[in-house]
Design goal:
five-stranded mixed beta sheet, mainly beta, 4 helices, single chain, about 525 residues
Length: about 525
């Protein structure tokens, strides 16, 4: 069967304009995957599995299909033809900025097959279609998985594979091109990869943010959720703690392939939640909610890397404090509180050093001008550890930022604050005292168990309790709004105790800075 890439499509513009969903003609009863938008935003490439018109028919694991942007929505898709497709799994990894090159997942071989164990291929735009794909050689590339997912960017390929040093079923790797040669793939490490599956990785345009899907992280909403992590240096091995994108994107279904389009100012992803078939492509045009995570990276530093002799029964705390949005270093004050105070200030490079007793429980506060304070706890009881690295990422003070007071806890079903709550509430007091123009809104949430009306009342009473405490510490009541939402705004499912614990939370939102 031969396919011609001639788009003499008969599309009803009125039908598109009347549809509220610009993807209405794209999604079907089959499995839509791997959406990739051309740099000019006018062409959508994606993979459909088990479609009867695929090269391998209903048994085909996936062929590339193409749709065009018609101004108000995407056209009905057209099969991309036998040059780009075969009986194996076919998908687009990316396009060159000028649209002249199409990068494809896997190697192409004679006999109408492809080889997923090998890297990527490239096809040239001939003006009348795409040329036969040419295989790209990447040293020590191996993928034992039946499919390959990833993203090509100029001189860079980030991908998911089961390879030589895979931690779990599938890990995320990066390979880079220098001149005409590609590097041996680098595993992104255990901060990103788990013993389960990490897949469908995508980098932001500047290469600093990684979006990926995982089924190996606690507290997820479904089988696969989308996470985001910031790259911390040029080694590609140091990353911030991945953050779940939340209910704006994730559901009880399977979410994969979160990919943005600068031209269209939007992102696409796939989900099985409320889909026409197994997986549908969804559009996301809102801004991701500002989620404040401490994102404290803690690790024991190898003794051979530590040149300063640490006294007995002491531990040296080292780390870097950075802007959570830009990654730039911050001059900040770090305080470790126990029966004594231990204070350090980071330098212009964001680095700090502090030596403290090694058998204490510490309340940690990190504060910097025009940034939201961070509160943490550290319990260390060892004489063996000499150096501990703690890196903190602070969020700039901006309207709309949401801060989760994760250590503010109440007795079950009551408004009585547990003793461990006061240290974090005092950090909020310090923050408001240091930023006298900031106005906040306290927000209380419960899980969905029990009576809805009583949950709403309880959450409001808890907000009032926290507001009263802040006022008792000298904060003007005009700077503190407050509302309880009961169980109406969950950030996780309520089908496990772990998920319900996430939903039982107190937050504050910055209303004015």
């Amino acid at each position: 069967m031969k396919y011609l890439l001639i788009f003499s499509l008969v599309v009803s513009f009125s039908a598109l304009s009347q549809s509220a969903d610009p993807l209405a003609l794209i999604n079907s009863s089959y499995d839509e995957q791997n959406p990739v938008i051309s740099p000019d935003g006018k062409t959508l490439y994606f993979t459909i599995a088990n479609h009867p018109d695929n090269i391998g028919g209903k048994k085909d694991p996936g062929d590339i299909w193409i749709a065009l942007w018609m101004g108000t929505g995407w056209s009905a898709p057209v099969h991309a033809g036998s040059v780009l497709n075969n009986r194996g799994y076919n998908g687009v990894a990316g396009l060159s900025y000028d649209g002249s090159e199409l990068y494809l997942l896997s190697h192409y071989a004679k006999g109408n097959e492809n080889i997923t164990t090998q890297g990527i291929s490239v096809s040239q735009n001939t003006g009348t279609g795409w040329s036969t794909p040419q295989n790209i050689s990447i040293p020590y590339f191996l993928n034992r998985s039946s499919t390959l997912s990833g993203q090509w960017l100029p001189d860079l390929f980030v991908f998911s594979a089961e390879s030589y040093n895979t931690i779990g079923a599938e890990d995320i790797y990066i390979t880079r091109k220098t001149g005409n040669s590609w590097s041996e793939p680098i595993n992104l490490g255990s901060t990103i990869n788990t013993v389960f599956q990490e897949t469908s990785p995508t980098l932001s345009a500047d290469g600093k943010k990684l979006y990926f899907a995982s089924n190996g992280r606690r507290g997820g909403f479904g089988s696969f959720d989308i996470y985001v992590s910031d790259r911390l240096d040029e080694s590609w091995k140091n990353w911030s703690t991945p953050v779940n994108l939340g209910t704006q994107i994730n559901s009880e279904g399977r979410e994969l392939f979160f990919r943005g389009s600068d031209a269209q100012k939007m992102a696409l992803y796939t989900t099985t939640q409320n889909s026409d078939g197994y997986g549908d492509i969804k559009l996301f045009k809102d801004s991701l909610q500002a989620i404040l995570k401490v994102d404290t990276i803690v690790r024991i530093v190898e003794a051979k890397r530590d040149s300063i002799k640490v006294p007995d029964k002491k531990v040296k705390i080292v780390g870097c404090i950075t802007n959570s949005k830009t990654g730039e270093p911050i001059i900040a004050k770090v305080t470790f509180k126990t029966d004594s105070l231990y204070v350090a200030t980071s330098g212009a490079d964001g680095n700090y050093v502090l030596i403290v007793p090694s058998t204490k429980i510490y309340s940690i506060e990190v504060e910097a001008k025009r940034f939201v304070n961070v509160s943490e706890k550290l319990d260390i009881h060892t004489f063996e550890m000499q150096t501990l690295e703690m890196n903190f990422r602070l969020q700039p003070i901006e309207v709309g930022a949401v801060v989760n007071l994760k250590s503010v806890l109440f007795e079950l079903g009551k408004t009585d604050l547990l003793e461990e709550s006061f240290s974090e509430l005092n950090v909020v007091v310090d923050f408001l005292n240091s930023n006298s123009s900031v106005v906040i809104a306290l927000e209380g949430h419960t899980d969905n168990r029990g009576d809805m009306k009583k949950n709403l009342e309880l959450s409001q009473q808890r907000v009032d309790k926290i507001k009263s405490y802040l006022i008792s510490k000298g904060i003007s009541q005009r700077r503190i709004k407050g509302k309880g939402y009961g169980g109406s705004r969950p950030i996780a499912t309520n089908d496990s105790e772990e998920a319900r614990r996430l939903n039982r939370r107190v937050e504050f939102r910055i209303l004015k800075n």
